[in-house]
Amino acid sequence: MKLLIVEDEVKTGDYLQQGLGEAGFNADLARTGLDGLNLAMNQPYDLIILDVMLPELDGWQLLQAIRKRGNEVPVLFLTARDEVDDRVRGLELGADDYLIKPFAFSELLARIRSLLRRGRSSQEPTRLQVADLELDLVKRRVLKAGERIDLTAKEFALLELMMRREGEVLPRSLIASQVWDMNFDSDTNVIEVAVRRLRAKVDDPYPRKLIHTVRGMGYVLEERD
Fold first, then answer.
1. Which residues fall within 8 angstroms of residue 100, CB to CB, at 6 or more apart?
2. Would you say residue 219 has pLDDT above 90?
3. Using CA atoms in the order 84, 90, 93, 94, what is the torsion angle rounded to 10 degrees?
4. CATH number of 151-221
5. Of 25, 28, 181, 189, which sees the most CB atoms within 10 A?
6. What are 210-214's contacts with CB under 8 Å, separation 24+?
7. 48: helix, coil or strand?
């Protein structure tokens, strides 16, 4: 799942991006309100974490601009503005939740997951399944043949991409851009290593193999006879 953080305080922004990445989310970071608006209107996000006091465009204005354009992405205000009037204003402008700094990261994660469940309940499923492989997008949990499999954040993101595009051959360049947010370098074997490690967890211990190599093209996740 892809999140957008709009936070001008450097340490807080970096902390959020790193922590959410380790929790399995793909998180972009904008340092100004205008940069945040540009990303929000040109990239598909599952949720936005938004500060109020921002340069160029404050959080109130940014939220108003997003909603005026018909974008209903869930928005969570994360701010030191703790007055009741501020919380009411944020919610009336269209925010979905409001968390005061300083905050516990565990609470932030709980609120994010709650909003994602709520936001996706009427839009798309929160679980993906191919054969006996199940992936829970909210709980970040993977089951194969009913057994739980522990994956790293990158392994989870790679599996999510492959399951979302079941039956489609994914070139290494697409995997690199979607999972690692980088341009593909033909001299690196990071994709091959990641796929090998994922296979070792979700395929090798089980009779039913789902991840296949298409020589000269890339990888595909599908059930085969």
1. 79, 80, 81, 82
2. yes
3. -120
4. 1.10.10.10
5. 25
6. 210/130, 210/131, 210/133, 211/162, 214/169
7. strand
For residue 15, is pLDDT > 60? yes
Greatest pairwise CA separation for the chain in angstroms:
61
Q: How far apart are CA 1 and CA 160, in angstroms?
A: 9
Mean pLDDT of 174-201: 81
Lowest mean pLDDT among 6-10, 21-25, 45-49, 206-210: 21-25
Asked if the 2-120 domain carries CATH number 3.30.43.10, the reply is no
What is the arithmetic mean of pLDDT over 36-48? 92
Task: Give the span between the Cα atoms of 37 and 72, in whole angstroms.
Answer: 14
Query: What does the pLDDT look like over 138-147, one tens digit per residue?
Result: 788 999 999 9
3-state class of 123 per DSSP? Answer: coil
Query: In the chain, what are the domain boundaries?
Result: 2-120, 151-221
Supply 129's token pair: 């399944």
Q: Is the pLDDT of residue 121 over 50?
A: no
Pair 136, 117: CB distance under 8 Å: no
